[in-house]
Amino acid sequence: MGCRCPPGLKRGRRSPQPCFPRRVPSAGTDAADNRETISTATSELQALPQSCSPIPRTWLGRMRPLGALFLAALLTGAAAPWPDEPSRTCFFQMLSGGDSFFCRGDLEVIYPELGDVGCSYIPKCHQYRERISREWGSPRVRYPQADKNKKYVLMLVDPDVPSRANPRSRFWRHWLVTDIPGANLRTGDVKGHVLTDYVRPTPPPRSGYHRYQLLLHEQPEHEAITLSPEERVSLGSWAMESFVKQFRLGSPVASTQFLTKYHQD
Predict the structure, then answer these.
(1) Which one of 52, 77, 160, 176 has the fewest CB atoms closer than 10 angstroms to its CB?
(2) Which of 28, 97, 89 is nearest to 59 (CA)?
(3) Each residue's pLDDT tens digit, 36-83
C-alpha cells in the first residue's frame, strides 16, 4: 500500500518516500531560497509512517541504534537531546516549472550522502554546496533503461556562465564521456572514453543559481567521437549543439539537472 502523506506534505519523486514539506515563497523574497526548508526543531516535524519518513529508507537502519540509546537515556533518567536541544533536518526541494521539464527519462545522478540529486536544488545545510564544489568527485550516473548492446555519450554542462541572467560563455563543459556500455549505465558505473575529465560545479560568488545539466545520447555505431584542437583548449563557450549535430547524436534519450550556487551566498 502506498504511503499517504499528512496535510501540508507532498510525495517525493520516483518512490512513496520521502515526503517533503510544501512551502510557498513569500512576496519580496528569493523564491529559490524559500524552496529550501530546514527544520531547526524536531518538535516541528509531524509524525510520519515509516514509508513517509523525511529520512531516506536507506538511513533508517542506521538510526535504530540511536533510538536504542535514546530509550536507554529515558530509562536511566539521563538528559536526552530531544526536545530541549534542536536538531537540523535537511529537506530537498524538487525543481518546478520550466526547470523541471528538462528532467526526462529517469536519469539518476548520485553523489555521496545526497543520493540522486536529479531535478532538485542542492541545499546549503550540512555544507552540501561546498562539498559538491570542493570535495566530491564525479557522481555515479545510472540509467536503468540503457540497452546493454548499445553505447552512450554523457555530457555535463553549465549553460549559466557567468550567470543565468547573462550566459555569454555558455556552455561550460564539465564532463564528456563517450563509448559508455549500456550495461555499465544500468549500474551507474560511468566507464568509457573520457574526452573531458570531470570538473566540479563551482558557481562564482553572487552569480545566483546555476543549472548543471546532464544529457545522455545513444552513440551511433562505428562513430569515432572526438573534440577538435580548439575545443580541447577551452572548456567555456562550447558549441554543444554543433558537436551533437556533427556526430549525429540526435536528441538525448534522457536528461536531468540540478541547481546550486556559491556555497557562501
Answers:
(1) 77
(2) 89
(3) 433 323 223 333 333 333 434 333 343 344 444 333 433 344 333 333
